[in-house]
Amino acid sequence: MTSSAAKTAPRRPTVAVLGTGIMGSGMARSLLRAGLDVRVWNRTQAKAAPLAADGATVAQTAEEAVRGADVILTMVNDGPAVAAALAAAGPGLNAGQILLQSSTVGPDATTDLARRAADAGLIYLDAPVSGTKQPAEQGALTVFVSGPSAVRPSVDPVLDAIGQRTAWVGEEPGAASRLKLVVNTWVINLVGSIAECLNLAEGLSIDPQSFLDVMKGGPLDSPYLQGKSAAVISGDLTPSFTLSTALKDTRLILEAAERSGATLDLVAASAARFERAEAAGHGGEDMIATYYAGRPAQKAGD
Fold this sequence. Notes:
The protein is built from 13 helices and nine strands. It is α/β, with parallel strands linked by helices and 302 residues long. The protein has two domains: 4-171, Rossmann fold (3-Layer(aba) Sandwich), CATH 3.40.50.720; 179-293, N-(1-d-carboxylethyl)-l-norvaline Dehydrogenase, domain 2, CATH 1.10.1040. Strands 3-2-1-4-5-6 form a six-stranded parallel beta sheet, with helices on both faces. Helix 12 runs antiparallel to helix 13. The protein is globular, with a radius of gyration of 21 Å. Mean pLDDT is 95; it is low at 1-7.
């Protein structure tokens, strides 16, 4: 006999993940571990194919991925890429589907994407995430959400699978994206500070490990400081968040700051460093590769 609890248990949503790069693939695996039905699509098919081994249905087209899905999760590089993915998915979209837009696109693109979603009859949730590769793979992201809270029961299984914490910050799209830019300002300034400390240590012929040792366990220490510094010292810059993506986010922050009247000197300096490092060929490496933008001149070619 079926219990009343089983009869009233909400149906677990089917999720279409559009974009399976570093973040999207980790989020898809977290959804699969939670027992959700997951379809995945990526513009470059080879990036989506490995997820079949984890139980995902790999769609040949975005249209195929979204057809009949309850929730559509977008995790691509920027606003134009989200718009392109939605256009590709267009024939498979149905009114009432929830669009969980988790790419960092900034306030202006959020407004445009919300309009596109409304035109397609979709329920738009502005839902950028805080975290990098490892938290995405562990289902330990922080998710900021703004949009109609009435759909929360339908989307909670997805949010619970990808994040350790969800912050609902408003009923209208945009509030979550603005909060994400503030959070990213902290991260970008922090990674720049770490890089500059390592640059100065090198310039003064100080073993960088000595700096880390004296910081360790003190009030100014952090796992981020130790982890990013270790990546530079070891030379393993496998990206958890690429430098080029950090540069894109930095530009979004500066655009938003200019419109708001805020002056962000540190972020502007970080943008210049990211640009130099990207020009030197470090764009696909972890964002701590900003270190290479500040090495002492006599050692930069070592």
